[in-house]
């Protein structure tokens, strides 16, 4: 029996472990893969307070070691379900069942990929899924954004203030995002629109140097030389294993506000897997602190 079980050892889960242990609660962190989450793929963090120029891996390792030193227990097993027994919760993994008074779901989300050959190999070497995280690396350079929703449009607008040229590539002939943002982009001289097209090839040596774009209607292939490709075709939250118990929104994110409280008393959501407008390292850490504080309060009251 633990006071709190945390599912996921990304920035949100690790921060939650630190806060829960500082409140003298017994903590088990369950992680399916490796600690750190998506941030370990970031080569250089520049937007986290007091941690400029640190790799995502080094950052995650420091937070992991901090949680360990405080006494959090880590088990590397994948959580596949939660059973609510009222005063206690059972977290079921592929191998075992663990019991706690409160649970924090911090499973995060993964970027939806383009599915183009060598995409994974070029992450951090020209391919990014976060314009606000990595846009500054491409100041004065040529970049492209792929996607048609608000995230893609906002990324393109953000990059237009930094890059020499921004290509906005969409597989349809009209964007799904806000018309006001589309109009703002059309006013930018350095933004070029490419409709009805897919990125079909990545060209690279050590880093990305160009892409091939194929027109869906004519099958014409165009090569575009660029320094960075920002993929904004959606995210996939890691919540399906808990969907029968926890309320999710239409996109699969846990329906929880800034207090991180879910529809089930004693179960909380922290990080990129919950409904929120900003998904950044700093907001994941903030969620972890809030969720742990709420979970500690629940444990003390029950």
Q: Secondary structure elements and their pairing?
A:
Blueprint: E1 2-7, H1 11-22, E2 27-30, H2 56-69, E3 73-75, E4 79-84, E5 89-93, E6 97-105, E7 109-111, E8 127-128, H3 131-134, E9 142-146, H4 150-160, E10 165-169, H5 179-186, E11 191-194, E12 197-204, E13 208-215, E14 221-225, E15 228-231, E16 235-237, E17 267-269, H6 281-301
Parallel strand pairs: 1-2, 1-6, 2-3, 6-17, 8-15, 9-10, 9-15, 10-11
Antiparallel strand pairs: 4-5, 5-6, 7-16, 12-13, 13-14
Q: What would you say about this model in short?
A:
The chain has helices at 11-22, 56-69, 131-134, 150-160, 179-186, 281-301; strands spanning 2-7, 27-30, 73-75, 79-84, 89-93, 97-105, 109-111, 127-128, 142-146, 165-169, 191-194, 197-204, 208-215, 221-225, 228-231, 235-237, 267-269.
Task: Give short descriptive properties of this protein.
about 25% strand; 5-stranded parallel beta sheet; elongated; FAD/NAD(P)-binding domain; alpha/beta
Account of the 3D structure:
The protein is α/β, with parallel strands linked by helices. The chain contains six helices and 17 strands. It folds into two domains: 2-111 and 235-301, FAD/NAD(P)-binding domain; 120-231, FAD/NAD(P)-binding domain. The strands form four sheets. Strands 1, 2, 3, 4, 5, 6 and 17 form a seven-stranded mixed sheet that branches.
